[in-house]
Amino acid sequence: MKRLSVLVFLILAVFTLFAYADKDPIEEKLGPYFAIEDKSGVENFPLLETKADVKIAGMIAEVELTQVYKNDGNKTIEAVYVFPLGTQSAIYAMRMKIGTRIIEAEINEKKKAQKIYEQAKEDGKVVSLLEQERPNVFQMKVANIMPGDTVEVTVSYIENIVPEEGIYEFVFPTVVGPRYTGESDKKDLKGKDKWVSTPYTHEGDAPKYNFDIKVKLETGIPISRVWCDSHKVIVKNINQSAVEVSLEPEQKNKGNKDFILRYNLQGDAIQSGILMYPGKKENFFLVMMEPPKRVDPKDIPPREYVFVIDVSGSMHGFPLKITKKLIKQLLESLRSEDYFNILFFSGGSKGLSETPIQATKGNIQKAMDMLDKVEGGGGTQILQALERTVKLPKKEGMSRIVVIATDGYVSVEKKTFDIITEKMNEMNVFSFGIGTSVNRYLIEGMARVGKGVPFIATSEKEAEDVAAKFIDYIKSPILTDIKVKFTGFDAYDVEPVAMPDLFADRPLVFYGKYKHAYGQIIITGNTPSGKYQKEFTIYPNLASKDNEALMYLWAREKIARLGDYSTVGVEVSKEITELGLEYSLMTEYTSFVAVDKVIRDTGEVVTVKQPLPLPEGVSDLAVQEETKVSTGRKIKPGMKFSLPAPKPMPTSGERDEDEYGYNEASVKREIFISQTIVPSGVSGSQVEREIEKQLKTDLEKLFKEWNLSKVKVELEIQNGVVKSVKFSDKKSDKFSESDLEKVFKQLKLDSSITGKIIVEIVY
Predict the structure, then answer these.
(1) What's this model's pTM, rounded to 2 decimal places?
(2) Residue 273, CA distances (Å) to 290, 350, 541 in order
């Protein structure tokens, strides 16, 4: 489709920021930026080492994560470090070590913990504060690290490991990818989401800190195989059911991608059954039920698929290459009676077709040709893409399946869940996380609220595997309409409250509390081949004091559910806070703080944000900003890039096809914003909306009248008002500068914008 394209470059006027001891200009940043080393005597990379000691017993992993900070500069610093953990991690303890002194952290309500931290910082005490920014993103602050000091902070957490297709997978995330902030509220970016203002080193640069991980695995059942595709490891067999795993020495600089350890048991056994913990105040249980065998239904009804594909800057290169392989394999699996559509999104969202098209060989080939042409660039405007997905016409009589492929580098996770929950509730949403360190909170959350299954593809080989799994899963769920009944076993506070349908070949898992350790648990449901029932008998000797982890896992599961409720306006902060304080758990509203008792004369304290490496395979296009890592004396305005939109595919016609196979004779011309480049702190989407809202009709009229194909417009903006207009790259004999100038002088932007705007318009 031939449309009017607008390329908007928003470049702020030259400005100068001066560094003061009491004000860090980095705090003014509203998004990720590149780090430039500052030579002012400040330690720019205080994180010396991050290491994990992991013990996996049965289905539960206990992890001790230690971060070592050292100040090799000549000024006292406050180190700030953003790091990831698993989405289901239950953090229950933290301790800090300075020299020989060990300080156990205390759990506090978040605002109280912040006050304790600030007071200790002012008093000259070494103090550390751990805060949750997302269920999988945390921020550590360590203040008053004097020159020569080494401070260790250890975080303890547990998580449950649920097998799929007989394979157990332990994931240790290592780095938080840069978050696109173009769809976030400014008040959030200056407040609760300030953490996204994080410095990054450049593409391909190894982490400046050492990374190490050791895993001791004890299963109780003979182990068949242990492997790690993400890192080179040494596997040492202890006995048939126990192994130790460690990194090869040369892997110490590989803390820029998730560590993924997989194992299976002999005969593909699954450790299903019941675990029980008799606590001091309350008793807890966990049920892990092996699913029934998958049965292929004979008659699968036709489906309509919408593939929503992230082609933003962070997907450029390696991640997009994986995505293309994945989507091509999925397209090839479609049947002729199926229908499909594709929506690409970055700074904007552009579709393959205005309506679903049949999965004929010709249409699939055209879609693949279009896919081949796409390259990554721009911001990750996922909200806009989902809103457009909702509005796409639906094929009558068919169930719609939405497939979202992205690395998830956005800061609007809850808003994304809102759209899926409220507007896509009649669709099944399957999410594909693409890359070596994806945002699993977003990927898993989209599938959870969309009644689908999440997949992660870190390589081309995994893309093939997850595509095959998806093709298998969508044929039919394994178990639906699941109900749990308790007889004699007086269970209560069961999580989750409603049991989800099982698409994947993975166990059903739920937690709860109980009063008496006897009775039965009866689970029923429907399979493609008929009714299903499974019974568990409860005996007192199943309860063990060794299962204390169940208490934290139950609380973490309930906190996660309450967090989902908060996305639709339900006030849950008080209940989550109470749970965090009662069970000593990190939450959105509770934090750990550790304060040394020794008061020292620290002098001036400089805040340093520990620069993060870009995840392996992620392009510099994911960031586009530079600033110094400590005092921020030099700032280069950052820009968010968007990919030129692919032209939508017509559904009929054979003449005048372009390189994508589109028939231009049947296309209606119209204006849309295909690319935007804006500095940090300015909403590119808002600029796009204002241009389209205010100028679209007049621009379309002039371009049609002049048969204009291209023009570049340079605007001088002062307080949101156009002061002067210049033109270049004119592609029409009928072009009138005065007429087009009148159009652009109608443009009114936010009064905070002053500087230069360059608009490239293509018809």
Answers:
(1) 0.77
(2) 8, 48, 14
